Amino acid sequence: MKAPNSPPPDPGRRRFLRGLLGGGLALGTLGGMGVAQAYDFGTVRGEAVLPGLRSPLRVAFLTDLHYGLYIFERQIRAWVDTANAARPDLMLLGGDFLDVRSDVDPAPLLTELARLRAPLGVYAVWGNHDYGSFGAYDRGVLGQGIPRWAERREEVAAAFAASGITVLRNAGRAVRDDLWVGGVDDLWRGEPDVAAALAGAGEDQASLLLSHNPDLLPDLPRRVGLVLSGHTHGGQIRLPIVGAPVVPSRYGQRYAMGWVQGAHGTPGYVSRGLGVSGLPLRNLCPPEVTLLTLRPG
């Protein structure tokens, strides 16, 4: 019953409260959907011609795992299982493995990554979050880092090697007579050297270059067969029509995701990655395990 001296109902206030409640529910629903999308990965398959190949090549590409903050062993295990099930000839890993403090042991991550199997091997490069996890910019002036951060990088590289993963830091390998795989240091935090990564490649060999950050593409010193990158997460949050409002690239959406082109007509593929950074949210930008079939040409 209404009190005798109570004011009459205010329809405007009621509309405001209903709107506030509805908006909160909508944001909660969208946030829940965003969290669900962040962990609902899929497989992206693609084909391309790679000059210099003498026989087809199946490549699995995993990048931006971001283990430690929002991503744990369960997610890594599922990604490894998916990559192994494709039975690729070659496994390539695009960096940003770690999103942890510099004193955190990466053993749980490596236990899962050690299960990756490919007859031509498993090769990787570092990303900017890996450098953060080494302690490269934990204290002081950006880039100064904690004492011994560079030694920490080498210790983690050795642990990766013991798990069957070769980290290519401005280096490369002939993984097949007709194929050179090179990898460069991170563009933001490392000292990338494309020429060093491709120094051993023969003129008649196909070349694959791993670069965590696709912003390297416009500055390639010469044509490369194919560059594989991650880093951008596709923007992580994409909106209908406008795409990704924020992409961690000086070129905006140019290298946000998918097939792109660099200097000298070099083709590149930018994966949306698997983990998340900043917030555990994705929208219209699902995580991906990338499976590429490369053919002679």
TrEMBL record:
Keywords of the record: Hydrolase, Metal-binding
A GO CC term attached to the entry: membrane
GO biological process, one term: lipid A biosynthetic process
Gene Ontology molecular function terms on file: metal ion binding; UDP-2,3-diacylglucosamine hydrolase activity
Start and end residues of each Calcineurin-like phosphoesterase domain: 57-234
Pfam name, any one: Metallophos
SUPFAM superfamilies for the chain: Metallo-dependent phosphatases (SSF56300)
InterPro entries: Calcineurin-like_PHP, Metallo-depent_PP-like, Metallophosphoesterase_sf, TAT_signal
Domain of life, per lineage: Bacteria
Statement: the UniProt record of this protein carries the keyword Isomerase: no
Name listed for the protein in its UniProt record: Metallophosphoesterase
Source species of the chain: Deinococcus terrestris
